[in-house]
Each structure stands twice: as structure tokens, then as C-alpha cells.
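Appendix B, example 12.
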Amino acid sequence: MKWIELQLTIKHSDLEIATALLYDFGIEEFQIMDDSITDDDRKAMYVGYVEDYIKPYSEEVMIKCYFNQQADFESIHKQVLATFNDYYVPILVSDIAYTDEEDWAHKWKEFFKPFKIGDRIVVKPIWEIYEATADELIIEIDPGMAFGSGTHETTSMCALALEKVVKLNDHVLDVGCGSAILSIIAAKYGASEVKGIDIDANAIKIAKENVAHNKVEAIVEICEGDLLTQVDQRYDVVVANILAEVIVLIIPDVIHVLRTGGVFIASGIIKERKEIVLTALLQYDYQVLEVVEDGDWITIISTR
């Protein structure tokens, strides 16, 4: 299949808000073409880049958004440009190209290398070799084209929050599980039962494969469903790494699936939307335990 490829070159400093805007707009099929690497990134990498491929840190980065040929691309293109303008995200260059699905599906794998979250978690693509130390937890991931490799700040914050709150034999609910990376991490931390839910059938397929790669099928169940409509029991921990507006929508429903004293981890929140989530939590009598910030992103840990 041929795909329409919208190439947006922006300032590197605008990358976080730009990706948030794309998600808010409903565009999930995109690649970030950023083969430069910072000193912090270099320290975090375990199986390193070959030096010939490392470029100096660039002030610019390209985002490639993909649309099938049946989409109303002209209308979508205009709306994307207008949205970026409304949020003061300048587009330095905007180009249109065409690409084959197979090329898009595999090219990005060249740049996905093992990396560490916190002191214990190592996220490793299934096609890479990595020698773990005794205290490291290895998460084997094939994120597919758009469902989460764990490199995003919101995923890292959720992973570290799970490390703090998940206790042995806890039951954990992962809302909008994507690649199932957070579900798998919860299982590795000792949860005895984990349920991951996602509305996207392709994400469900990828999530189930990742659960099998990590040999946690006996603990992690992946279900296709719309938010909390498939949930009929209570959990010790609920994690939702989605959009701020969706988190606000589910806050009243989380009450019915979270055990008394349980922990709700809400992420995927850009700073500009932090207050609407906090207001909704307080409205429904949640107690905010911690607000974690990483760049332009927020994670809120609360309880009832």
C-alpha cells in the first residue's frame, strides 16, 4: 500500500508539544527522524550507536506523519498547520512524499536500541542482544509502528511510578496499554494479575505478542475495549498513560475499579493541561500524592 507522508521540520525544542498536538489531533502514525544524540542520551544507551551514525545535536528535527490514500489529506494538512500555528509551534519546512508501508514498517528499527529507565528497567527491542546484570529487569519489546517503545517521557514516568507503588501480588489495570510495556513492567515488579486494555485492534495484537516475548502470559491479560467498559473488578493500581482530556473523562469511572487506598497513576498530560486534571481529581475526592514533571510532560499519582 502507498502512504502519503507529511514531513514537518520543526525546532528540536518544540518536539514534545508538537507530538502532543498530533496525538490530540488523532494522528498516531508518525515517525520522529532524530538521529542526533545528546550527551544524556549517549549515557543512557546500552548497546550504542555506531559512531559513524552519530550526528552532532541538531536544533531541528523532522516528524513524518502517515496517511493512507483514502484519507482527506488536503483538509487534514490544513488543519494540522493551523493547529501548530495556534500553539505557536513554527513549522520550518513542510513537504509531502509517498512511501511504501513495508519501508515505513522496518526503517525505524535501525534507531531503536536498548535503554534504561531508572536503576533497574532495561527496555530491549527483541532483535537486539543484551547481557543483563543480576539486578536488572529486562523488558523485551517490539512496539510495532506507533504503539510505544518506552522512550517517551510519560512512559518512563509511569514505569518509575509503578516501581514505587506496585507491591507483591497486587492487581494492576493498564488503561490504553498500547504495546503493553507498562503491563509487563507491573508484572515484573511482582503484580499477580494485570489487565491491559486498548481500543486499537492493531495495538492489541502487538501487546499480546510482547506479553508472550516476556513470558508473562499467566499474569497479563490483554483486552480490546473502550476505556473502562470491559472492567468488572477492582484493582490496587490503575495506570492510564493517555491524553489529559481522556483522563478527565475516566476519573469518575476509576472510582468504581480502584480499591480503597489504591493508587491511580495518570500520565500523557502536557503542562498546559495539568490543572484540568488536578481539578477533576479533587472534584471526585482523590488525594494527590505526587506530581512528577519531565520536560513538558506531567504524571499525577493519586489515591482514594
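The radius of gyration is 19 Å. The longest helix spans residues 73-86.
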